[in-house]
Amino acid sequence: MGILVLVTGGTFDKEYDELTGKLFFKKTHIHEMLRLGRCRLQVAVRAAMMVDSLEMTDADRETILANCRKAPESQIVVTHGTDTMIETAKVLAAGTREKTIVLTGAMVPYAFGSSDGLFNLGSALSFVQVLPAGVYIAMNGRCFRWNRVRKNASLGVFESLPP
Amino acid sequence: MGILVLVTGGTFDKEYDELTGKLFFKKTHIHEMLRLGRCRLQVAVRAAMMVDSLEMTDADRETILANCRKAPESQIVVTHGTDTMIETAKVLAAGTREKTIVLTGAMVPYAFGSSDGLFNLGSALSFVQVLPAGVYIAMNGRCFRWNRVRKNASLGVFESLPP
Amino acid sequence: MGILVLVTGGTFDKEYDELTGKLFFKKTHIHEMLRLGRCRLQVAVRAAMMVDSLEMTDADRETILANCRKAPESQIVVTHGTDTMIETAKVLAAGTREKTIVLTGAMVPYAFGSSDGLFNLGSALSFVQVLPAGVYIAMNGRCFRWNRVRKNASLGVFESLPP
Amino acid sequence: MGILVLVTGGTFDKEYDELTGKLFFKKTHIHEMLRLGRCRLQVAVRAAMMVDSLEMTDADRETILANCRKAPESQIVVTHGTDTMIETAKVLAAGTREKTIVLTGAMVPYAFGSSDGLFNLGSALSFVQVLPAGVYIAMNGRCFRWNRVRKNASLGVFESLPP
């Protein structure tokens, strides 16, 4: 059946507009990243939206959920801005069952030199193949259940919730 | 307890010597790659050797095995040249139990622009956390049991053995 | 005597702040770029300021001019944001004589993958060695007298003023 | 009339063959480098050959000379391996007049991360526009007359001949 990579935007896919000096979205880099990783998984890539996760609305989250539900794949990687990744994970956890969904993102745009994106994509695609149904966050080489994690904004890392 | 990354060389760590125009080994890039991946796993890095896997001897494989056996960690990622990765996996499978060992490598040196190394490292570090004890090869986003895989040298990819 | 590289900021030296998702200045990349270019010129690097050229004030321009005047070097490369590079060139032309001053910049930050910065730096350092005293803009492989050039903002390139 | 970039191979254009682990030539990277440098010069690119300069023959040098002589352009940049760049320069100096020819190269292939190629190309394209007729070597940010330079092989840099 293969894996669905559902693209929603986030830092992952931001680019530098050399005419305006601003960051913007053009198109997803996922295909290029899969090529660079010499990925041989059966992967379908679908861009649901291209937004900064700080600007993601409830309607956007419903769209992401609908995409996950209707997908034939039961293993789904969602690329997402890190700021509200956990909020979206919560919506997905409430609305799906029997699917393994792994959200991942990047702290630095892939198009820039020093991105963690390729590392995170390799990580998320691996976790999604072996973890049981549920919704997870894969960042920093780690994988958390959606309700056991928080983003430490001052360090820029994801960490376990204290018990 | 954390994860051991056991470095043995391979394409992963090759560099370009600008005085001779040859490829050579200087030191491992694993620390830099973990930093780039913003990795927050508890990882110990140990360089057992720095060799081209085509030149790896039986004695080298015994050294790698000894390092795996004596390591306190039960989750081990071995970075290795792709040409003889499966041979080493066989030695490790014969000599270890109750450890999860994932071998990975790269088709292009990390120091060059277009390497799959960071993707593979993210993948291997993820598989090693969740798979049961055994010896595996993680390449191309996939993970194979050591005795269910072959390298397709003409394509440069790893693939399942036909049943 | 050597060459002075006078740093003022600009796109050249912008970086991505992974905690805020904004572009900012940390420190100049000129030393790293000279190392990458295996530059063997006698070069002194001085950071006069680190500002976006859209925010550069008249006082800033006077500071740049003062730095050029007091420098013992008679060959000076000024790294500068492209938006107001020509305004600064005009101030330098009015206030200096007997020095060759070449302003250059970049359309994409050096720290990002696809920057023109290294090309432009190689170009500016070359022109400054051979051109007679005067103030010039070196961009896009070309070199213009300061009063014979305009920035075409919609194309993101510098071009000759029509006669 | 514009500038001719005459490609002969050299480290500049070497690539890593991920199937064999060897360095090889595929096609020139000059077009990509000119694009990266946002170069707006009128440049024609012609690949005369793609060889390692250690393997360049007298016949190859005659071919390069013939290409320079028959070119309508009077400003020519020759990309060349550094090991025998000066030998080729000597042949060009003996066989041309009234043309400005600048040879340049790289210590590290452009396709690898840490290449000096883009810096050198920016430099050579600048020197060729302003220097009088003659044959020159542009490396390390410097420009030497062909008969006033030697390659210091142990440092990997070009330096002035002692007087």
Strand order of the largest sheet of chain A: 4-1-5-6-7-8
Distance between the termini of chain A: 37 Å
Which class of secondary structure composition applies to the elements of chain A? Answer: alpha/beta
* Largest beta-sheet characterization of chain A: 6 strands, mixed
The most extensive contact between chains is: A-B, 36 and 36 residues
Task: Give the total of beta strands of chain A.
Answer: 10
List segments of chain A where confidence is low: pLDDT < 50 over at least 5 consecutive residues: none
Form type of chain A: globular
Mean pLDDT of chain A equals 96
Radius of gyration of chain A: 15 Å
Overview of the molecule:
Four copies of one chain form a homotetramer. In chain A, 28% of the residues lie in helices and 31% in strands. Chain A is α/β, with parallel strands linked by helices and 163 residues long. In chain A, β6 (100-104), α4 and β7 form a beta-alpha-beta unit. In chain A, α2 packs across α3. The longest helix of chain A is centred in the C-terminal third of the chain and has 14 residues, at 117-130. Chain A starts with a strand and ends with a strand. The mean pLDDT of chain A is 96. Chains in contact: A-B, A-C, B-D, C-D. The A-B interface holds A 33-34, 36-41, 43, 107, 114-116, 118-127, 129-131, 138-143, 156-159 and B 33-34, 36-41, 43, 107, 114-116, 118-127, 129-131, 138-143, 156-159.
